[in-house]
Write a structure and sequence with these properties.
- The protein has about 290 residues and is of the alpha/beta class.
- It has 11 helices and 11 strands.
- Strands 3, 4, 5, 6, 9, 10 and 11 form a 7-stranded mixed beta sheet that branches. Strands 1-2 form a two-stranded antiparallel sheet.
- The radius of gyration is 31 Å and the shape is elongated.
Length: about 290
């Protein structure tokens, strides 16, 4: 396989007539140009330059290669010119990932405003409680609620995301008064055998409350809690959207997670991506009180 990086070196030497002149034109070093030319000659099995009193001259093989190399250079330049500026335009596709709860209840109005401002931008959204990998190119921008950020990503930390124990006001009025000192008589909505949730229940004021059901969908927890079916761990923003829910008295908020707007480092200079990240940051920051609770 031809090392295409050596073609500019070949053309620079052909134009300058010497390694030193080519190095100055390329902004490289004499030794680097020599290695590239020798590598290209080894790959092709020919000698491309011959030494003369005036420096380096093209051999017969070099003269044969020159027009094709110039044609390849022109084609590359044409390609670069064709795409230059595309990423500086407020148009094109952006892949955005977020968890469904945040997307449905908090991002939708924000994204509606953004898309009205930039009608040539096309969103491809993936809603999942799994985390799409920015590093592996599975998404361009991601809204994440995490304890820490790792990997080849850049982004902006918004604020802590508060998680608390929430239930319907009607359930709290009905059940809390008669509950035992450690939650006896109360009901947790369960996710199934999830160690993290079990630890959160054990550390709560209601470790003896009964855990019922196995419902892995947070949105269903939200709606069952609204219907008075029991208590659940939910984000602190839920009462701002569903005022029939309230934090259960005597419980504290967990702020060990934070909300981030993240993207791959290579996309920082892509205008449409930067526009979306900045818009999300500013718009969600305005809703800081809802997130923190």
């Amino acid at each position: 396989m031809i090392d295409w990086k050596s073609l500019p070196a070949f053309l620079a030497v052909a134009r300058a007539g010497s390694l030193r002149g080519a190095a100055e034109a390329q902004g490289g070093t004499h030794a680097t140009l020599r290695r590239q030319i020798e590598g290209l000659e080894a790959q092709l099995g020919v000698t491309l330059f011959r030494r003369s009193a005036g420096g380096l001259e093209l051999s017969a093989a070099g003269r044969r290669l020159l027009p094709q190399a110039l044609e390849a250079e022109a084609a590359l330049r044409q390609g670069f010119n064709a795409v230059r500026g595309l990423d500086s335009a407020a148009s094109g596709r952006i892949r955005l990932s977020a968890d469904p709860m945040t997307a449905h209840y908090l991002l939708a109005p924000v994204l509606g405003e953004f898309l009205a401002l930039y009608p040539e931008i096309y969103l491809e959204m993936r809603l999942s409680y799994e985390t799409d990998s920015i590093e592996r190119g599975e998404t361009d921008v991601s809204i994440r609620h995490v304890r820490e950020v790792s990997g080849d990503v850049v982004g902006r930390k918004l604020f802590p995301l508060s998680i608390g124990v929430f239930a319907a006001r009607s359930y709290i009025d009905r059940a809390l008064h008669d509950a035992g000192p450690r939650g006896e008589g109360l009901t947790w909505l369960g996710y199934g055998p999830v160690p993290e949730l079990e630890a959160m229940i054990a550390a709560s004021p209601f470790p003896r409350a009964r855990v019922r059901h196995a419902i892995p969908d947070p949105a269903m927890h939200l709606h069952l809690a609204r219907a008075g079916a029991g208590m659940s761990f939910l984000a602190a923003w839920v009462p701002s959207v569903f005022p029939e829910l309230q934090r259960v008295p005597g419980t504290a908020l967990d702020q060990s997670r934070a909300t981030w707007v993240l993207m791959h480092g290579d996309l920082r200079r892509v205008a449409r991506v930067r526009l979306l990240v900045d818009f999300l940051y500013e718009s969600l920051l305005e809703r800081r009180a809802d997130f923190i609770g």
